[in-house]
Amino acid sequence: MDKVYPNIDEAVADIPDGASIAIGGFFTAGTPTPLIQALARHGAKNLTIICQQMGPGNDTITQLIVNKQVKKAICNYPFYRSASKGASSPFEQAVRADEIELEVYPMGTFIEKLRAGAAGIAGFYTSTGVGTTVELGKEKRAFGGREYLLELALKPDYAFVYSYRGDWMGNLTCRKTARNFNPEMAAAARVTIAAVENLVEPGKLDGDVVHVPGIYVQRVVKVERPSYYPTIE
Amino acid sequence: MGKATKIPRGLSRELMALRAAKELEDGTYVNLGIGIPTLVSDWIEGRDIVLQAEIGMLNTGPLATRENVDQDLINASCQPVTELPGACYFSSVESLAMIRGGYMDVAILGALQVSEKGDLAGWNNPERGFPEHIGNIGGSMDLAVGAKKVIVTMTHVTARGKPKILKECTYPLTARGVVKLVITDLAVIDVTPKGLLLMEIAPGLTAEEVQSLTEPKLMIAPDLKEIEL
Known about the structure:
The structure holds two protein chains of two kinds.
Chain A: H1 8-11, E1 20-23, H2 33-42, E2 47-50, H3 59-66, E3 70-75, H4 83-87, H5 90-96, E4 101-104, H6 107-119, E5 123-126, E6 140-143, E7 146-152, E8 158-167, E9 172-173, H7 182-188, E10 191-200, E11 219-222
Chain B: H1 13-21, E1 28-32, E2 49-53, E3 57-63, E4 81-89, H2 92-100, E5 106-109, E6 113-115, E7 120-121, H3 140-146, E8 149-153, E9 165-166, E10 179-183, E11 187-192, E12 195-201, H4 207-212, E13 218-226
Parallel strand pairs in B: 1-2, 1-5, 5-8, 6-9, 8-10, 12-13
Antiparallel strand pairs in B: 2-3, 3-4, 6-7, 10-11, 11-12
């Protein structure tokens, strides 16, 4: 089963306006930068972007904002920590101007929503967020004397993920903390596109250390490692 | 607005981190939040304490130097870090599950406000002007709810001299009733079911001075002492 696309622009060509796209990566680590660049060239609009952040450590996401391709963002740490840096960020400006709708979840809820989406689970109860503004509009229920919030599954149309080493069949491995959200996003999406740094033939990966089983991955593209210095300042 | 309160000179950020490090027991798993808590890692070198980075790592080592930066190895503050022997990596879903599942012995977190009931407000500063339901939550709510013990390190008052230890938090909450100990530049305060207990004060300060910069009434520990470093 060869899932390799020779051209990265072809791999994103069918993404329609209005699609929801989960993008892996935690600030700079494990971000599928070449795929975000391809999406910016492709130009699909009215997108819902599901990503940890919307700019800090991730200039390529900012390009989608500048292009006015994003109508909604679902995040856990959307803004720059520094208020002054945030004030000049196109994403923060678009949220303040009500040009982009923003949903924010605690990090654990954010990724568990995707895991539930991947596993055919409709929703789950968590105590994170009880007694805070996170509980607004959500069912609250007590189990064993403790209160929990109902959070619903999230199933994106597409996922962009990054892999250090993967094979043609879509089996992927990640390196160190670059794994982060990539496996659950790959599993949750209907169509997962993997940017793979070291593309090998099936049999060359140790099956015991695969982080993303190939069944979750529909398209594979070979990319060069994006180079950056890890910082959000 | 009243005139600016004179803020006594207290512990530096580094010494607050040192005091917090003294709270940690050997053989524990610990998560350090952004800000002053991050500095705690400088004071536990060589100790039998495993640091978790919520991005998906156990046994995080000291910050990397320019020469040994690995762009695939960062902490939750996006700082390049190193790994210690016995380090292991996992996905963020597993990382947050171990936090929510109650496996983290201690979380040391920053805060904007703490209430006398142990409520914690740390993710959304209204001065930034966002609606009260959006801001940078990250892993703070998961840690506040999931860790067995939550220690807060923060300056005792705001830059304008206003108390940050309050009867009720006025900023959006991170979690209710979770803070067990508050370490500030001026004092160490235990959050007890009966209220706040002043345990230690910075050198040169009196309990009255600390009280004047704290909104709720403080109980004074019988063995009140200078902050031990």
